[in-house]
Each structure stands twice: as structure tokens, then as C-alpha cells.
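1st attempt posting a full record on here, be nice pls
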Amino acid sequence: VQLVESGGGLVQPGGSLRLSCSASGFTFRSYLMHWHRQAPGKEREFIAHISSTGDSTYYADSVKGRFTISRDNAKNTVYLQMNSLKPEDTAVYYCYVPTWAKWGQGTQVTVSS
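the predicted structure (as C-alpha cells):
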């Protein structure tokens, strides 16, 4: 099982980024997928999850209305569209497949002017 995140970077407050997580080594289309993040000095926190088919999503209150999780099962990829970014969104972002308890290596998102 392997998860590889990409798409992080430096963005100004109010800007947008789209993160991607490419999965391999398991039947991606069969499993719930998560995004989490960890800010400096803080515990890792849940951001969003998406059902195996993509028809059900759930968000933490901190990102609801600004972030959108989606997936393309043909490409074995889960996405996180992040809009209206704030400095407090600065963190390393991880994708996670709970059934396998597997994390990606993370991608850094920095929101700063």
C-alpha cells in the first residue's frame, strides 16, 4: 500500500490550492479515504473523508464550506480542493486509508503573505 501526496506550496491568504493523493497497492475504489493535517506544534487532525464511491463526504468544521474532497477511481487518486485559505491552514497535509492504517508522506501547505 502506497500513498503519495502532491500539490502543496506557498499561497497567499485567500488563495487556492488543489492537493492530490495517488494510491497504489490496493483496490482503491473499494475504500474510504481521508485527508488530515498537522500544524507545527499541534496534533494531527482530521479534515475530510470520502466514501468509496465518492457519493458521501464529511468535513471538519474548520474547513467546511472552503475545502472539497473528491476522488477519481479510474485514476486511483483522491483530491482536496482548498479555497479561501487562511494562515491557520498552514500545515503538512496527509492522505490516509483507515482500513490499511496507511499514511502518505505528506505535502507542505504554507499560507502567508
